[in-house]
Amino acid sequence: MQKTVFHNAGVYWVLVAALVSGLLLSGYALATGFAILISVRLVWMAALLFLVATKHKYALANLKWWLIISCVAGPALSLAGRLLNEMLDGFSSFSAEFYLNRALLLVVGLILLSYIRSTVTVEYVAAK
After folding, report:
1. 123: how many CB neighbours lie within 10 A of its CB?
2. DSSP 91
3. Mind telling me which residue stretches traverse the membrane in this protein (predicted)?
4. How far apart are the first and last CA of the chain?
5. Contact, 107 vs 79, CB < 8 A?
6. If 0-12 CB within 10 Å is exposed, 13-18 middle and 19+ buried, where does residue 19 land?
7. Where are the alpha helices (DSSP H) in 55-126?
8. Which residues contact 110 (CB under 8 A, 6 or more apart)?
């Protein structure tokens, strides 16, 4: 039987805390106003939290996809799009907070992705 093994407990608890907080924020966003993308994100994060908590063999692949899509590609594309838009407007609506927020999310996503690639593996575990 294959299981996802977290060799660093700190990374495991950071991931669980990030997933729980993201799940709570998505639940709050869904409660205040319905949107299909919010409900998709809520279902995906709940499934991912379940996979991580049970240490399912597909947890590692889903964690990588989640980090790449939501914490790396999303902020990077958002930064690039906003920068191009502001270049066309002559930087009339420049907001340093937006750039710092997205850059911080991008850096945290890259750090988490690096830690996951080096400390989380899928191994064969003897069935009990």
Report:
1. 11
2. S
3. 12-30, 36-53, 65-84, 104-126
4. 10
5. no
6. buried
7. 59-66, 74-89, 96-119
8. 71, 72
Interhelix angle for 96-119 vs 59-66, to 10°? Answer: 160
How far is it, in rounded angstroms, from Cα 65 to Cα 69? 6
Contact criterion met (CB below 8 Å) for 99 and 79: yes
58/96 Cα distance (integer angstroms): 38
What span, in angstroms and rounded, lies between the C-alpha atoms of 58 and 103? 29
Rounded CA-CA distance 91/80 in Å is: 14
- What sign results for the dihedral spanned by CA atoms 82, 20, 44, 40? negative
Q: What is the pLDDT of residues 5-57, one digit of tens each?
A: 999 998 899 899 999 999 999 999 989 988 888 899 899 999 999 999 999 99
At 86, the amino acid letter reads: E
pLDDT digits over 97-122, tens only? 999 999 999 999 999 899 999 999 99
Q: φ and ψ at 123, to 5 degrees?
A: -130, 160
Give the C-alpha separation, 113 to 64, whole Å. Answer: 7
